[in-house]
Amino acid sequence: MAGRSMLAFLLTLAVTLHLSWDATFLEATRTPLAAPQLPGSDRAQSSRADSRRSFASGDALPLVALAAAAGLAAATVRTVRVRRRVHFSYNTDTLMPGSEFPDMTVDEEAAWVAEKSAELEEISPMTHSEYLGEVEDLHYAFQQRLLPFRSNNKGMNTRTRWANQKRKTLLCEAKFFQKIRLWKPLAMKYPTLLKRYAALIGGGHQVDLENRKMMVNASFLKNAEFVAGFSYLDFLKETNGLEFDNWAMPKVGDTVTGTIVDVGEDGAFVSIGAKSWALLPVANASLKPVNTIGQAGLRIGDEIQAVIVESGVQSKVPGDPNGVQDILSTKDLQLNSAWEKVVAAYNLEEGTEHIQKVTVLRMEGWGAVVINQDGLQGAIRNRELGNQAGNPGLIGQTLEASIVNLREDKKDTFDDAIFADDFPVEYTYKDVAKQALAKNLEEGMVLEAKVLEVLPASVEVEVQGVSCTISKTNVTGAPGSSFQMTDVFRIDEIIKVYVMDVLEKDGQIKLSTRALERKRGAMLRNKAKVFQMAEETAKLFFERSQAQKNKVFESLAGIGDVLDGGIEGLKAPKKTQASSVLGDEDDDDLGGF
Question: What CATH number was assigned to the domain covering residues 335-428?
Answer without folding.
Answer: 2.40.50.140
